[in-house]
Amino acid sequence: AQSVTQLGSHVSVSEGALVLLRCNYSSSVPPYLFWYVQYPNQGLQLLLKYTTGATLVKGINGFEAEFKKSETSFHLTKPSAHMSDAAEYFCVVSDQAGTALIFGKGTTLSVSS
Amino acid sequence: NAGVTQTPKFQVLKTGQSMTLQCAQDMNHNSMYWYRQDPGMGLRLIYYSASEGTTDKGEVPNGYNVSRLNKREFSLRLESAAPSQTSVYFCASRLISSANYGYTFGSGTRLTVV
């Protein structure tokens, strides 16, 4: 069965610092992977997704993620954090049948000035 | 604005009361989903409808029922609300039920059961 593990429920960085949010997945088939962001009191928004092809995926707001099959990882990065990046981030894998998405437990990103 | 619309945005129920959460999308999507979000738990799938006329249970279906009224609308019903159902509920849709498609989410319904 597919699953995702997000390492660290809370990450704190300074404005301008590198953002690294870690995600490892478990899948018996080639995975489809997503990152979603949730700003306070809002719904969820797709940041980026990996399906096939290039393993480095670029998303919105300067975020990117790299699919590493050998490490079963899909970590999210951004070179320079901005205050507006403060939010909760979810790593997501599609279930084997493709019928639904399976969410990690989330990582809250705090950005300090 | 195109997207997924959920009503109501907030609701307080007493234990044992019933209510229906409404969801509608205007993107001509085929698949629709209901999730609940609890602190530290991420989002967990309650029910989904891969296409009009079909519904299936997700990870946490107990205490809930759903109706896919038509292609646009997918409602979630709590027949007898319990405090354990206090949560934020999200409806989502996607064009087709395929592994490489992401969701479009509604803004959520914050439900408190007292």
Query: Radius of gyration of chain B over alpha carbons?
Result: 13 Å
Report how far the terminal alpha carbons of chain B are from each other. 34 Å
How many alpha or pi helices of chain B? 0
Spatial shape of chain B? globular
- Tell how many strands the DSSP assignment of chain B holds: 11
Measured by DSSP, the beta-strand proportion of chain B falls in: over 45%
Number of strands of chain A: 11
Q: Secondary-structure element order of chain A, as H and E?
A: EEEEEEEEEEE
Describe this protein with a few key phrases:
heterodimer; A: 113 residues; mainly beta; 6-stranded mixed β-sheet; 5-stranded antiparallel β-sheet; 11 strands; 0% helix; 55% strand; B: 114 residues; 7-stranded mixed β-sheet; 4-stranded antiparallel β-sheet; globular
What's the SSE blueprint?
The complex is a heterodimer of chains A (about 110) and B (about 110).
Chain A: E1 3-7, E2 10-14, E3 19-26, E4 33-38, E5 44-50, E6 56-58, E7 64-68, E8 73-78, E9 87-94, E10 101-103, E11 107-112
Parallel strand pairs in A: 2-11
Antiparallel strand pairs in A: 1-3, 3-8, 4-5, 4-9, 6-7, 7-8, 9-10, 9-11
Chain B: E1 4-7, E2 10-13, E3 19-25, E4 31-38, E5 42-49, E6 56-57, E7 64-68, E8 74-78, E9 87-94, E10 104-105, E11 109-113
Parallel strand pairs in B: 2-11
Antiparallel strand pairs in B: 1-3, 3-8, 4-5, 4-9, 5-6, 7-8, 9-10, 9-11
Provide a descriptive summary of the structure in words.
The complex is a heterodimer of chains A (113) and B (114). Chain A is mostly beta strands and 113 residues long. Helices cover 0% and strands 55% of the residues of chain A. Chain A has strands at 3-7, 10-14, 19-26, 33-38, 44-50, 56-58, 64-68, 73-78, 87-94, 101-103, 107-112. In chain A, strands 2, 4, 5, 9, 10 and 11 form a six-stranded mixed β-sheet that branches. In chain A, a hairpin with a 5-residue loop joins strand 4 and strand 5. The mean pLDDT of chain B is 93. Chain B has strands spanning 4-7, 10-13, 19-25, 31-38, 42-49, 56-57, 64-68, 74-78, 87-94, 104-105, 109-113. Chain B has no helices and eleven strands. Chain B is globular, with a radius of gyration of 13 Å. The interface between A and B is medium-sized, with 25 and 25 residues.
